Queue: 3 jobs
Job 1
Amino acid sequence: MIEGMAILHMSQADVVKHFVAVLAKVRQGSEVVIEQGNCPIAIIKPSKAADRMISEVIADLNARGSDATMRTLRVTLGKASKRNA
């Protein structure tokens, strides 16, 4: 199912079935290409280093078309922390 590191190709059914193992491989640096038949539909890959400043994260989100601001992130993070409490 999941072997070694690097780029792994998996069906979406296998990703759903082994999601915890997939995330463990991603944490170790592997990329997972999710395929439907022989067609890639998504890629799961490690995020950039977490040591970025929040202003850099917002600038990156804005460059990708998001309208994120410090205020919207606080609201989003506040809702997430209440759900996890």
Job 2
Amino acid sequence: MLSVVDCDSEESLKKLIGRKEIEDALTNQESLMIVARNLEVTHRVDGVVRDVDSNVKATKVLTEDVDDNVKATEVLIGDIDDDVKVNILHMVCNIFFLSSCTN
């Protein structure tokens, strides 16, 4: 199915060439060159898409590593929080014990 742009381009090309059909104006070699160029562009796009896909996969792996690091940090912070609470409890008990000994 031709788009409006394709039709406009075809009409312009017909006027430039002075022929009714574009195919009449193209030699076999020119047609092959156009096909080869389209194939080259297709391969470049395919390569770019593959590069983007591998970048997305690498980003996903890095994100998973960051997530694992965040989880490990949360565990460490929890352990530190527990240690601080125990130390405060020991300090309070020691203060209470010392104050009861002096009275």
Job 3
Amino acid sequence: MKVIFRQSGGIGLGTKIREAQEDTALLPSDEATRLQSLIEQSGLLDAAGGRAPQARDAFTFEITIEMDDGTVHHKVFDQMTLPESADPLIEYLTDKSILRNLR
């Protein structure tokens, strides 16, 4: 399973983004199991995604999950539409992310 994470927007990041890429095939087995569990518990694979019109200054979370069978799930949320069940996954991916300048 491969996960690509991107966080942008919000007043705090300004012209910066956070990005992370994780591949469970390259992680130690306990870390891979943890990531898979966080994804399953997040509910994101079944969530509709989307952004709230009033969330102009909110963070945007873009998550792409490529399953081992090749199925790809691409989801975009903001702070208002992100399911609470996804908070632990977002925290994990944020901790793994790198801060980059857009310019």
